[in-house]
Amino acid sequence: MPNNNKTKTSIEVAGRTLKIGNLDKIFYSATGFTKGQMLDYYIRIAPVLLPHLANHPLTMKRYPHGAQGKFFYQKECPSPRPDWVKTIPVWSRGNNRNINFCNAIDLPTLVWAVNLAALELHTSLSVAPAISRPSLLVFDLDPGPPATIIECAQVSLLLKEYFDRHNLQSFPKTSGSKGLQVYLPLNTPVNYDTTKNFARALATRFQQKYPDQIVANMKKILRTGKVFIDWSQNDEHKTTVCVYSLRAREHPTVSTPVTWQEVTQAHKQRNPDLLTFEAAQVLERVSQTGDLFSPVLTLRQKLPAIH
Questions:
Q1: Is the terminal CB of the chain with fewer CB neighbours within 10 Å at N or C?
Q2: Three-state DSSP class for 249?
Q3: Which residues in 74-95 are b (16+ Cβ under 10 Å) and which e?
Q4: Cβ 221 vs Cβ 137: under 8 Å
Q5: pLDDT for 35-70, tens place per residue?
Q6: What residues have CB less than 8 Å from 40, skipping those under 6 apart?
Q7: 89: which strand partners?
Q8: Which helix (H) or strand (E) is 153 found in, with range?
Q9: Distances (CA, A) of 300 to 109, 135, 158, 168
Q10: d(CA 242, CA 235)
Q11: What is d(CA 76, CA 58) in angstroms, rounded to the nearest whole number?
Q12: Mean pLDDT across 201-226
């Protein structure tokens, strides 16, 4: 870990005093995007980001040497930490103890985490205190080269068609990396066994129906030129990149909510640039459209029987 002590600055954030450091450090070498710009992005996106972080156990993916450097996942909320940083205890069978995840419920906590080089923010599908109950279901669409996000767009539209037939609303977002994700808000009592089994069964059915396009098997060797529907994310002990999180790519791309119209357009034009957004673009989008993902927080739906 680099020594930040020489370059720390005190700032006031919503009544809390924070020490932040290394603001000029370049985090994305291809664009010269600095840690200061990263903090600025997260502060400006916070009004729409924080509702999706609050009360979700947060796993921080930390990049102390920038987006292209070595990283580590941190589940246990770092200590020492300010006494105002809240945590969510989650029982870990493997460790035979609670892991106390950070709970990013407010702007000071978010800035504190990002200052620790938590470039990527990954969240559980549960909302505390109902840790054993997912609030939503996710299909993570991962393209096996030479397939791209355009093939993911095609598969996401097949998923949308299925959910539309069952009068369910689904919401797409880019992963900010290579693929797309489709979220199905539930916000009704359900357990992970149910959501994971449903996701697996539906992914397997799609694999059987579209064997040249889709794979539901976890083996990477089977994914070449196809889209892997990752159903396994629907698990109490797994996390998915949070909407509006930056990603550690060559450019400061963001996991961005998109409209189904945008997905359709990108697929028709076969143009992956229509589904690629960097930090400045996302801030501009939000200023125009607000949070396209806000319904995910409250929309109450129930899983259909698979038929």
A1: C
A2: coil
A3: bbebeeebeeebbbbebeeeee
A4: no
A5: 999 999 999 999 999 999 999 999 999 999 999 999
A6: none
A7: 100
A8: helix 149-165
A9: 29, 9, 22, 10
A10: 15
A11: 9
A12: 91
Q: Which two tokens mark 94? A: 């493997």
Task: Find where tokens 């066994």 sit.
Answer: 193
Question: How far apart, in whole angstroms, are the C-alpha atoms of residue 197 and residue 169?
Answer: 20
Scan for tokens 């995007």, then name that residue: 33
Q: Look up residue 130 and give its two tokens.
A: 């109902």
pLDDT in tens, 85-139: 999 999 988 889 999 999 999 999 999 999 999 999 999 999 999 999 999 999 9
What 3 state SS string does 176-220 have? CCCCEEEEEECCCCCCHHHHHHHHHHHHHHHHHHCCCCEECCCCH
Q: What is the pLDDT of residue 30?
A: 95
Lowest-pLDDT range of 102-116, 179-193, 214-228: 214-228
CA count, 13 A, side-chain hemisphere, 81:
21
Extract the runs of DSSP E, i.e. beta strands, from the chain: 8-13, 16-21, 26-28, 33-34, 58-62, 72-74, 86-92, 97-103, 118-123, 126-127, 130-134, 136-143, 171-174, 180-185, 214-215, 227-230, 240-241
- Look up residue 31 and give its two tokens: 């664009």
Identify the H or E element spanning 45.
helix 35-53
The structure tokens 């609050």 sit at 54
